[in-house]
Amino acid sequence: MSEAVGDPDELLTRLENGVLWLTINRADKGNAIPFYVRDRLIDAFRNAHWDVGVRAVVLTAAGERHFCTGADLSVPQPQRGTKPAEAPDRVVGSAINMMRAGFQQLMTAIQDCEKPVIVALNGTAAGGGGMLVLAADLVIAAENAKLIQVFVRRGLVPDGGVAYLLPRVVGMHKAKELIFFGDDLSAADAATLGIVNKVVPAAELQSAAKDWAERLAAGPTKAIGWGKKLLHDASELSRRDLLEEEAMMVELNSSTVDSGEGVASFRERRAPEWKGW
C-alpha cells in the first residue's frame, strides 16, 4: 500500500526480542503523519499480524512533546486513478473514499492485528493521534502526556473511528463531553477513565513499555490473539454467536504447540516455555 515517497526515517522500525517497535519520527512537525507514513503504519500492522517472528508491537513517537497530532494535511495526497479533464477538482464521494482508505484502515489494521499492540504515549495525542491510542490494546503514558479530541476546535466531525472507539472505553456521556468540548485530558485523568493503563515518569516510559511488550512477546501468542478477537467481538455479537466463536477459538487453540506446553508444564510443575505457535 505504501507509496515510495517521503523520508523512510519518518517511521522507524526495529524488531527486538519478538517486539516490533514502530516510532513516528516527525517531532519537528508534532509527529503529524502524512499519507505515506499512515500507509506504512497500515502495512506494518498488517505484516505484524502474519509475521510469526513478531509477537507484540509497540507504537510510540520521537520527542517528549507530541505523540501524534493527527494527519499532516500540509502534504497533499496524490490523486488515485484517472480524472477526465472536464471533471471537477473535487468529485462527490472523494472524501468518503479518502476516509475509507486512510485513518479508518489504520484503525482496522491495529484492531485486527493478532499481536497485542501497546502505545507508549510520550506526549500529546490529538485528532487521529487519539484514535491510535484508543485503537491500541494497552496504553502506557508519560506523566506529561495528554489527549485532545481536537475535532470540534477545527469545526470537524470526529473521524478515524473515534466515535466508535471512545464510548466503548469511557461510556457514552463522557465520550460526548470529550468530543463536544474538545478539552485537554491529562494522562492521570485518562487513566482514571480507563483510556490509559499506566502512567509513569517520562524517563521511564520506554523501559515500562519494553517490560510489558517483552512479557507479552514471551507469552502464548495465539491464545492472546484469539482472546483479543473475542474481546473485540463481544460488544457486537449476540450471546449465541459469541459463545459459538469462543468454542471455535478454544478448538483452534487446543491444537497449538503452546496449548500442549501449558498442560505439560502444569503437570510437570514447571514454568512454561511459550513458542508463539
CATH architecture heading of the largest domain:
Alpha-Beta Complex
Assembly annotation: single chain
Mean pLDDT: 94
How many H/I helices? 11
What characterizes the major β-sheet? 6 strands, mixed
**Low-confidence runs:** none
Give the distance, in angstroms, between the N- and C-terminal Cα atoms. Answer: 28 Å
* CATH homologous superfamily placement of the largest domain: 2-enoyl-CoA Hydratase, Chain A, domain 1
**Based on DSSP secondary structure assignment, what is the total number of beta strands?**
10
| Overall SS class | alpha/beta
**Globular, elongated, flat, extended or rod-shaped: what is the shape?**
globular
CATH class of the largest domain: Alpha Beta
Give me a quick take on this structure.
The protein has 277 residues and is α/β, with parallel strands linked by helices. It has 2 domains: 8-217, 2-enoyl-CoA Hydratase, Chain A, domain 1, CATH 3.90.226.10; 221-267, Lyase 2-enoyl-coa Hydratase, Chain  A, domain 2 (Orthogonal Bundle). It is built from 11 helices and 10 strands.
What does this structure look like?
There is one protein chain. The protein has helices at residues 35-50, 94-101, 103-112, 128-135, 162-170, 172-181, 187-193, 205-217, 221-234, 239-253, 257-267, and strands at 11-16, 19-24, 56-61, 66-68, 117-121, 124-126, 138-142, 146-148, 184-186, 198-200. The protein is α/β, with parallel strands linked by helices and 277 residues long. The protein folds into 2 domains: 8-217, 2-enoyl-CoA Hydratase, Chain A, domain 1 (Alpha-Beta Complex); 221-267, Lyase 2-enoyl-coa Hydratase, Chain  A, domain 2 (Orthogonal Bundle), CATH 1.10.12. The chain has a 6-stranded mixed sheet with strand order 1-2-3-5-7-10, sandwiched between helices. A 4-stranded mixed sheet has the order 4-6-8-9. Helix 1 (35-50) packs parallel to helix 3 and helix 9 packs antiparallel against helix 10 (239-253). It starts with 10 loop residues before the first strand and ends in a 10-residue tail after the last helix.
